[in-house]
Amino acid sequence: MAVPNVVLHVADVHKRFGGLHALADIDLQIEEGQTHAIIGPNGAGKSTLLNVCIGKLAPTSGTVVFDGQVLTGKKPHEINQLGIARVFQTPEIFADLSVLQNVMIPALAKRDGAFKLNLLRSLDSQTTIRAEAEDMLEDVGLFGRRDTLAGSLSRGDKRRMELAMCLIQHPRLLLLDEPTAGMSRHDTNTTIELLKKIKSRGMTKVIIEHDMHVVFSLADKISVLAQGRIIADGTPDEVRGNPKVQEAYLGGTHQ
Amino acid sequence: MNALLMSRRDAVTLAIFALVVLTMPVWLQPFGAAYPGLMQKFAIYAIFAIGFNILFGLTGYLSFGHAAFLGVGSYTAVWSFKLLTMDALPAIAFAIILSGLLAVVIGYLSLRRSGIYFSILTLAFAQMCYNLAYSVLTPITNGETSLQLNLRDPRIIDSALAPRPAGLPSAGLFGHTFTGLEGFYFCAAALLIAFFIAQKIFASPFGMMLRGIKSNQTRMNYTGFNTRPYALSAFVISGMYAGLAGALLAVTDPLAGAERMQWTASGEVVLMTILGGVGTLIGPVLGAWIIKYFENIFSAFNEQIVSRFFDFLPAGAHEVVTAVASKFVGEGWNLTLGLVFVLIVVFLPGGIMEGVRRIAHLFDKSRRAPKAPAKLSTQPAE
Amino acid sequence: MDAILAQLLNGLDKGGAYALIALGLTLVFGTLGVVNFAHGALFMLGAFCAVAFRQLITMETTTVDPGQLSPWGAPLEIKTPLAQTWFGDFGAVMIEYSVPLSIVLAIPVMLIIGIAMERGIIKHFYKRSHAEQILVTFGLAIVAQEVIKAIFGPNPISQPMPTSLRGAADVGLWLGMGPNVLTYPWWRLIYFVFSAAIIAAVFAFLRFTTFGMVVRAGMADRETVGLLGINIGHRFTIMFGLAAVVAGLAGVMYTPLVPPNYHLGMDFLVLSFVVVVVGGMGSLPGAVAAGFLLGILQSFASMAQVKGLIPGIDQIIIYLTAVIILLVRPRGLIGRRGMMES
C-alpha cells in the first residue's frame, strides 16, 4: 500500500467537563494495519480519549470519523456493528456463563446483527458458530477451559477470553484499554505474545497503556498525551528520543 | 433445520415432565389433591410461573406487575365467551393477543429503565390497571361483582350453530363441553406446550442473549447487540404466557375479577419462581405446585385437625403446641408462606432446584467431576 | 379559590403520611443501600401499637356488686377499665387520649423491631442484589402482616380520636375569610403539624449532631467514611431503628383517620415507593417534597370537576405521576445519578 488508509480519524476534538479542559485539540489518524499506542501519565485524558473514540462521550467540539462514518451520537451496539471492538480495563465478561458461551455470543452478534428473534432454533444446531468459537479459544489457549464459568477464571485468563470475544468478531479496529493492568509479569508477557500474534494478522489496534514495556514491544506508532494534549507523535524510536516526552512522562524516574 | 428438533436431554426432560403432568390424577391421589379444580390450578399457575421466569430468570428484570396480564387474559376470555362462543380456543387466542399487546406497551415504556426503577414502573402500571378495572372500566370489568356469564349474552357463534341451552353454559372445545377431568387435561396440554416452548427458548441463541443481558448488559452493548428489543421480546412473551394462564382460569371457571390483577397476585408469581429456582426450567413449575398445594391443604386445616395431629403430646404441651401451630394453618397459611419465603431467600437463594442440586452433588461427588452449576443469582439487569 | 385551598389542605395530611414513610424508606436506602419492602409493614405495626395500647388500657375487670341490682333483677356488674383501676381518674383521660399517648409505647417497640430486623436479617443483605433485598423484605412484610392478622383479626379496628379534637378548625377565619368557608378537621391539621415536626426533627438530627453528620457522610460516600475507621455499621443499625420509629409514629397518629387493618402497610408501601422514586432515590428533601406533592395531587384529582374531565384520574394519579416522572426525569425530582440502577 502506497498511501496508508486511515481507519479512524479523530479531528480537532475538544472535551470539557465544566471548567476542566480534559481534551484539547486532539488530532489522531489511525492507519490500517497499525498498532497505535496512546500513552501518557495518569490523568492525561487517555480514558476520556478512548471514550470519545467509541462514542461513549460526545466531544465538546470536533469529530470522530471511522471509515467514513461519524461516530458521535451512535449507540455502543451500533459502533460495534460498524466493526469496532473493545477490551476494557477491568474485563467486561459474562461471569455466570461458560467460557465457550462467552465467545459464542459475540460470534452470533457478528452473524445475526444487533437483533434477531432467534428463539426456536437450538443453540446446539449452531455448529459453525460453535466451531469458530472453539478455534478462537484454541488460539488464546483457553480451549481446555471452555466449560468453566467465566467468572472463575484468573484475571489473566479473563483478559484473554475478553480478547477472544473481540477477535472472533474480526473487527476492523480493536481498542485495548490497558490490556495488562493489574497483571503479573508472567501474565503480561503471555498477553504481549498473544497481541503480537494478532498483530501478525494485520488487525488495526489502538492501545491505551502506561506500561512502557508493553508499548515499546507492540506499537508501530505512539502518541503521547499530557494534560489533555498530544505532545508527541511518531514511531517508538522518535518518541523515545523526544525531549518533551522525557520531560512530561519518561523523565526522572524512568531510565 | 427442523424447528422441533431438540437435544436428547431436553426431549427426555419433556417426556418425563409430560408423564408427570398427565398422571397427576393418579399420583396426587395419596396427597388428597387429585381433584380437577386443584389440578387445573397446578397447570395454570405453572404456566404463569414459567412465563414469568422467561423474563426474570433469563434477563434478570424483576417485574412486579405481571398480574395485570393475567387479569387481562381472564377478562378477554370471558368476553369471548359472552360475545362469541364458549369454545376455549378463540378465548385463549384473543387473551394471548390482547395481553401481548398490553405487554408491548407496558414493556416498551418500563424497559426504558432498569433495576428497581423497572420494578416500580411495572408495579405502577399494574396498579393502574387494577384501579381502573375497579372504577371507570366497570362497564367492561363489572367492577367488584366480577365479570360473569349471563343468560342474555349474545354468544353469536354458538347461537348460530346450535339452539341455546337452558341455564349458563360452560367452556368447551369444538362444541363439546368440558366435564370431569377434561378441563384439567386441556390445561395440562396447554402447560406441556408452554413448557416445550420455554425449553426451546432456553436452548436457543435468543435465550443465551437474554442470559447475556442478565449477566452483563454493558458487554452485550459493546458486543453489538441492541439489548432493548431482546428484553422487550422476553417481556412480551412472558406477558403472553400470563395471558394464557388468565384465559385458562376463565376456561375452568368463567369468571374474572379485578383482584386477579392486584399486586399481591404479582407478588405470588415472584414467590413461586423464587421458591422453585430462578432461571431453571422446572423450578417455577415446582414452586407453583408447592404454593398452590399448601395453600389449598393448609388453608383447609383447622384447629381440630391440628389438635388431632398433636394428640401424642402430654396435655399441657398439647394445648400450647396446638395453639401455636394453628396460627400457621387455615387463615394463617400466608404466615407460613411468608416465613418459608424469607428462609428460602436467606438460605437457599437458588430455591428448591438449588437444594436438589446440592443434594445430588453430595451423592455425585465420588462418581465424576462435578459440572459447573448454572449460577442462580437473582441479580437484576444492569 | 376556596375550593382549591380546601383541596390543598386535604392533601396535606395524606401527604404528611407519605412524606414520613418515604423519609424512612429513603433514609434506609441512603444509609444502608437496602430496598426495604417491609417499610409499609412498619407503618402498619406502628398503627397497631396504638391499637394494642388502647386495648391494654381499656381491658376491664368486672366486679359484681350484690347491693345494686340491674333493671332485670340480677346483681349489677361493674366494669372498670384497667387504666382506671391503676390510675384513677387520670386513667379516664388516658383512654380519652389513647392515640397520642400510645406514642410512648410505639417508640421503644418500633426501635426494638427495627433493630431486631436489621441485626437479624437485613444486615446479611447489604452485599446482595436489590432484587434479593426486595424479596427478603417482601417476605418479612408478609410475616409482619400475618402475625398482626393472627393477633388482632382481619377486620379494621377503629381508633377514636379525643372528643375535644373531633370538630373542625375554621381555617378560613384565620385567613380572613368568612366563618365556615374553609374548615379543616382538627385531627388532620394535627397530623400535618405532627408530620412536619417529625420531619424537622429528623433533618435537625442529621444536620446538627455528630451522629447525623457521619450518617450523611455515609450516604454521600460510604466507602470513604468506612475507610476513616468510623464504625458505620453500628450507626446504620440505629438509623434503621430510627426509620422504623418514624414509620411507626406516622402509623400511630394515622389511626383515627383510617381504621388500621393488617394490610394497611401494603396499601401504603406501594404508594410510598412511588413517592420515594418520584422524589429521587436517596434524596431526603426529595422524598418529603414528593410526599406532599403527591398527597395534594391526589386530593385535587378526587375533585368532582377534575374527575368529570378525566374519569378515573383519582384512581391512577399517583401511579401516572410516577410513570411520567420516571420516564421523563428518571432520577426523580432530586435524585442522584446512577442510584439503584444496578
Explain briefly what this protein structure is.
Chain A has helices spanning 46-53, 76-82, 99-112, 127-140, 155-167, 185-199, 212-218, 236-241, 243-250; strands at residues 6-17, 20-31, 35-39, 61-66, 69-70, 84-87, 173-177, 204-208, 221-226, 229-234.
Structure write-up:
- The complex is a heterotrimer of chains A (255), B (382) and C (342).
- By secondary structure, chain A is α/β, with parallel strands linked by helices.
- Chain A contains nine helices and ten strands.
- Chain A has two domains: 1-83 and 173-184 and 204-255, Rossmann fold (3-Layer(aba) Sandwich), CATH 3.40.50.300; 88-170, P-loop containing nucleotide triphosphate hydrolases (Rossmann fold, 3-Layer(aba) Sandwich), CATH 3.40.50.300.
- In chain A, the strands form two sheets. A six-stranded mixed β-sheet of chain A has the order 6-7-8-3-9-10, with helices on both faces. Chain A has a four-stranded antiparallel β-sheet with strand order 2-1-4-5, covered by helices on one side.
- Chain B has 382 residues and is an all-alpha fold.
- Chain B has a domain at 8-263.
- Chain B has helices spanning 8-22, 24-27, 36-59, 67-83, 88-110, 115-134, 138-141, 156-161, 182-203, 205-215, 217-222, 227-252, 263-276, 282-300, 303-309, 315-326, 333-347, 351-364, and strands at 147-148, 172-173, 176-177, 255-256.
- The two termini of chain B are 35 Å apart.
- In chain B, 54% of the residues are buried.
- Chain C has helices spanning 2-32, 39-57, 82-87, 89-96, 98-101, 103-120, 130-152, 171-174, 186-208, 210-220, 222-227, 232-254, 264-279, 284-301, 304-309, 313-328, and strands spanning 60-69, 75-81, 168-169, 184-185.
- In chain C, β1 (60-69) and β2 (75-81) form a beta hairpin.
- The model of chain C is unreliable at 338-342 (pLDDT under 50).
- The B-C interface holds B 60, 62, 109, 112-117, 119-121, 123-125, 127-128, 131-132, 134-137, 263-264, 267, 270, 274, 327, 331-332, 334-335, 337-339, 341-342, 345-346, 349, 377-380, 382 and C 35, 121, 124, 128-132, 134-136, 138-143, 146-147, 149-150, 154, 266, 270, 273-274, 277, 281, 311-312, 314-316, 319-320, 322-323, 326-327, 330, 340-342.
